[in-house]
Known about the structure:
This protein has helices at residues 2-6, 14-27, 34-48, 56-67, 81-93. It is an all-alpha fold.
Amino acid sequence: LKARSAxxxxxxxxxxxxxxxxxxxxxxxxxxxxxxTLLRTTRAIAALRGAKKVSLAHLREIAPMVLRHRLRRxxxxxxxxxxxxxxxxxxxxxx
Length: 95
């Protein structure tokens, strides 16, 4: 209940939406609005953690869970989808 009420006061910068969109674009996610789902989920995890502002740490934490099922499959790629998301996070957001 505290997290739900904190959502209204949670700060989310435009840069966070840009990061979510860049990540989804780089991954070539399937479907529409993956970046908005990612942003909403990132806000939710930040509120649950009691943060005042959404951070890149929240995005890193939640992105693999949100995006794994939205990735286009390459039949020759035997790597785990979570690893693909982690690699793209590293490329886009850095260390």
